[in-house]
Design a protein that fits this description.
Helix content is 29%, strand content 27%. It is α+β, with helices and mostly antiparallel strands and 221 residues long. Bound molecules: zinc ion (ZN) (2 copies).
Length: 221
């Protein structure tokens, strides 16, 4: 039997089927807080171990009055699923994208020239800033969205989504010079979400915090 089969090679799987498979596979379970039943984000050290949990709402600038008590979402009776974008209560959809991580660094030393310091004191110019890895923020693969934010996601309207989210953020993140920085961070984060979105979305329903996933009914994206 010659190794070469006379039959034509099987056609390669269409590119989109990989995405479809991914959309059917369960979304990895996010952590929720046992106490307030709301979503948590995780921070990792540089070896990839979880070092801290943070309420997702705190990440969006809202205060919290207790420390997170993490548990997988399926162990939380009746979890409260807010929109991961604008914080609106009762998110309707789960989207899935590549896990996104952001490295945060902390300043360990600032070096200034001695002469500079003697003549200018606090106005001395910083010659070098040393930093070390502080933590890695993991944003997770699943993003919950309210109907309003989902409309912008479906339309792939990045600036529309950023505009909507900025309106909903606390003033301390959008006041004066903070606005540019906040918009920049949202742009970076949501660009990655849009770039890695898998087709389809899951509808959140009672007892289905990870969403009920269906194949996309529309034409090819
Ligand atoms: Zn909590
Ligand atoms: Zn929203």
């Amino acid at each position: 039997m010659p190794p070469h089969s006379p039959q034509p090679a099987r056609p390669a799987r269409p590119a989109e089927s990989a995405g479809l498979d991914a959309s059917v596979a369960p979304v990895p379970e996010p952590f929720y807080c046992r106490r307030c039943r709301r979503a948590l984000n995780v921070r990792l050290n540089n070896r990839g171990l979880i070092v801290e949990y943070l309420h997702a709402a705190e990440q969006r600038g809202q205060p919290s009055d207790h420390r997170p008590e993490p548990a997988p979402v399926t162990e939380i009776p009746d979890p409260i699923i807010d929109c991961d974008f604008c914080s609106a209560p009762e998110a309707a959809w789960i989207y899935r994208c590549a896990n996104q991580i952001t490295d945060a660094r902390r300043v360990t030393a600032q070096v200034i020239a001695v002469g500079d310091y003697q003549t200018r004191h606090h106005a001395a110019r910083v010659r070098r800033t040393d930093t070390e890895h502080a933590f890695t923020q993991a944003w997770g693969e699943g993003w919950s969205a309210c109907d309003g934010c989902a409309d912008f996601i479906e339309a792939r309207n990045l600036y529309g989504l950023i505009g909507r989210v900025v309106e909903a953020l606390p003033a301390k993140l959008t006041r004066g010079k903070h606005l540019m920085r906040t918009r920049g961070q949202l742009h970076e984060r949501y660009s990655d979400v849009f770039a890695t979105l898998v087709p389809g979305r899951g509808r959140i329903a009672p007892g289905h915090p990870l969403g009920i996933w269906t194949h996309p009914t529309g034409k090819t994206p």
